[in-house]
Specification:
8 helices, about 20% strand
Length: about 240
Amino acid sequence: MPVPIPKTTVMKSTPEQLFDRYSESYSDLLNDSIKITGYEGDHFLRCKLKRLQSLFGKNLDSPFNFLDFGCGAGRTSEQISEYFPTAHYVGVDASPKMIHQAKQNSVCDFFSLEETDWKQKSYQLILAANVFHHIPPAQHSSQLQDLKNVLAPGGSLVVWEHNPLNPVTRKIVRDCEFDRDAILIPARKMKALLRQSSSQPVKILYTSFFPKSLSWFAPLESRMEWLPLGAQYLAIIQAPNA
């Protein structure tokens, strides 16, 4: 019997409240929720960075600014140099407790969402990974515009989200404690949001098709990115060149 798409339309907690509450238990809850895949969270983090490297690495061989929007405890900062050696990493999160953890674990720059320092830079690459389904829908447009405003000319914004068309994704979200009131966003909706106030095209790529038990098929994923059955998707928009 198919798992229904969550019907939540009102979030009970703000992102700040939610991730302050789960700041200590986040990694354990994440790993427990995705055990059906056979992987832990670090595997998917590396997959994200590897995919970004394949998409943008050739054009980012000089020093550049990388914004991790929704950085949590800063796990991406610990691995980014392996994939982008010239990146200057900046992490931003709504949860002060997550930012506190990140600052303890890394020497990179971290800011709370309410601080303005991160907005004083321009970024060649911005990643918002599994963030927007925790943001109230009424704030999506303004938050995306804030990110587009800090893109450097020719820079790219990558919104990485759960795909509600995938039944395993829906089950994982349903069973995950900190995703209980998440509102999943279809790729077509995210594409429309990104195109607001922009004439730039938006590219949608699907990813995460295979569990660990079928990992030998993983090399096929690059040929399947058009297929809207992956567990997650990337929505990519590029700022105009100067």
